[in-house]
Design brief:
The protein is α/β, with parallel strands linked by helices. It is 39% helix and 18% strand. An eight-stranded mixed β-sheet has the order 1-2-4-3-5-6-7-8, with helices on both faces. Strand 1 and strand 2 form a beta hairpin. It starts with 7 loop residues before the first helix and ends with a helix.
Length: 312
C-alpha cells in the first residue's frame, strides 16, 4: 500500500470505520454493515431541534428545525447523503444534518432518494429534482435565493447534477452548492485515481463498482450522471468544493472547481490535507476533520446569513 501520511487520530478513525466491514457480499449485508458503522459514529442530537420525517413528491424526507421560529422563505439547506448511490439513508447522515441545523440555526432537509442498483440512474436525481420543486411550492415555500444544496460523495454528485439540470431547464436554482469529496464522473486517467488507488475507505476499484451499479445499463449516461462532462458551466450557483487529499475522487473536485472558475462561477476549493474519503464522521475525533467543518460552517453561515440580510 502506498504510504498515505495520516495523523494518529485519522488512523484511529479509519481503523474504527473498517472494523464494521462485513464479509457479507450481498447488498443487504453491505447496507446493514454500513448502517451499523454509521450508528457507531452518530452522536445524540442536540435537544433543541425539532425533527420530523415526512413524505413529499413520493420521497421520504427528514426536516431539522432549529428553535428559532421559521417563516416562509427562511434559509434552508437541502442535504443529499453519500454512499455510492447504493447505501445510506436518512439515518446514515443524521449526524451532519443535526449539527448544521443546530449550529447555523437554519432549517435542514435531508432527502432519502432511491438507491441503485434497484433504482439505477436517473432515479436518485429524479427524486432530488422532484423534492426541490415540491419544496418551493409545498409546506415550506422555500425561497431558492436562500436555499443551498449540499451533499457528500454520491450526494455531491447529485447536488452538482441538480444545479445543472435546473439551469438547463431554466428553473430557479439553489443560491449555492456545497460538494464534499464529490464523485463527478471524472476521467479514469486523473492522477488521483492512480495515486490513491488503494486509499483507505475508498479505492479506485470501489469507485468503479459503485458507478457500475448506479449507471446500470445506461449506455450513454450523459452530464447529469457525470457533471464533469458538461460542456457549459456558466450560470451555475457559486460553490464550495471540499476534497480529501487521499481520495481517488480528489481530482474530480479539483477539476470541477477549475471549470466553474473558468466559466465565471465563484468556486472555493478546500484541499483537505491528510483527509480521506468519508471522513465527515470523524467529527470531534480528528483535528483535520474539525478544520474541514469550520470551513463548511463558515461558508454555509455566510451564504444563509447574507441571504437573510438581503431579504430584510
Amino acid at each position: 500500500m502506498a504510504p498515505y501520511l495520516l495523523s494518529e487520530q485519522m488512523t484511529a478513525f479509519i481503523d474504527k470505520t473498517v472494523s464494521f466491514n462485513s464479509t457479507e457480499t450481498s447488498l443487504t449485508g453491505l447496507r446493514q454493515a454500513y448502517s451499523a458503522m454509521c450508528r457507531a459514529f452518530t452522536p445524540p442530537r442536540p435537544a433543541d431541534l425539532y425533527v420530523v420525517d415526512f413524505e413529499l413528491a413520493g420521497v421520504r424526507l427528514r426536516s431539522y428545525q432549529p428553535p428559532a421560529s421559521l417563516s416562509d422563505g427562511s434559509p434552508c439547506i437541502v442535504y443529499l447523503h453519500g454512499g455510492g448511490w447504493v447505501v445510506g439513508d436518512l439515518d446514515s447522515h443524521d449526524f451532519i444534518c443535526a449539527e448544521m441545523a443546530s449550529r447555523l440555526g437554519v432549517l435542514v432537509i435531508a432527502v432519502d432518494y432511491r438507491l441503485a442498483p434497484e433504482h439505477p440512474f436517473p432515479a436518485a436525481l429524479d427524486d432530488c429534482l422532484a423534492v426541490w420543486r415540491a419544496l418551493r411550492t409545498g409546506p415550506f415555500r422555500l425561497d431558492p435565493k436562500r436555499t443551498l444544496v449540499a451533499g457528500d460523495s454520491a450526494g455531491g454528485n447529485l447536488a452538482a447534477a441538480l444545479c445543472l439540470a435546473l439551469r438547463d431547464a431554466g428553473e430557479p436554482m439553489p443560491c449555492a452548492q456545497v460538494l464534499i469529496y464529490p464523485g463527478l464522473g471524472g476521467d479514469p486517467q486523473l492522477p488521483s485515481r492512480r495515486e490513491c488507488a488503494d486509499a483507505p475507505l475508498l479505492t479506485s476499484n470501489d469507485l468503479d463498482c459503485y458507478q457500475a451499479l448506479y449507471l446500470g445499463d445506461t449506455a450513454r449516461p450523459g452530464v447529469y450522471a457525470k457533471p464533469l462532462q458538461a460542456g457549459n458551466f456558466r450560470g451555475l450557483p457559486s460553490a464550495l468544493i471540499a476534497v480529501a487529499q487521499f481520495d481517488p475522487l480528489r481530482d474530480d473536485g479539483v477539476q470541477y472547481a477549475e471549470r466553474l472558475d473558468n466559466a465565471g462561477v465563484a468556486a472555493t476549493l478546500y484541499y483537505g490535507k491528510g483527509l480521506v474519503h468519508g471522513c465527515l464522521r470523524g467529527r470531534g475525533q480528528v483535528e483535520e476533520v474539525d478544520a474541514l467543518y469550520e470551513v463548511l460552517f463558515n461558508f454555509l453561515a455566510e451564504k444563509t446569513l447574507t441571504q437573510q440580510a438581503h431579504a430584510h
